[in-house]
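The authors assume throughout that readers already know how a fold can be written as discrete tokens. Each protein is reduced to its one-letter sequence and a matching series of backbone shape codes. I therefore recommend that a typical entry be quoted early in the introduction. For illustration, here is how one protein appears when written out as sequence plus structure tokens:
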Amino acid sequence: QVQLVESGGGLVQAGGSLRLSCSASASGSGFSINAMGWYRQAPGKQRELVAQITSGGLTHYADFVNGRFTISRGNARNTVYLQMNSLKPDDTAVYYCNGKIGAGWTNVWGQGTQVTVSS
């Protein structure tokens, strides 16, 4: 069973920066990570993709990112980071780490970390 653990959320003023981290671990035999990414969910809204990076290093960003965020992987490939700059109040949400695991690209979710951007 794969687990994702996030860290790095918090409260920041508009225009500030935060860096989110997510590490994957598993009990039992090894696992393959096809892609890792970040989603977010604001109150009353649906969960939406923020950014994703594949095992081959390809990245994809939501349009609203507009060059402000950067997704990257750690050397061990089981860690993913989201560097968020020029944060806006609209970025306030719970940010969830997502992993697409194994041959079936099974979705695995972290517990979420709160990001609050004050105006």
Observations:
- The longest strand covers residues 18-26.
- DSSP finds no helices and eleven strands in the chain.
- The mean pLDDT is 94.
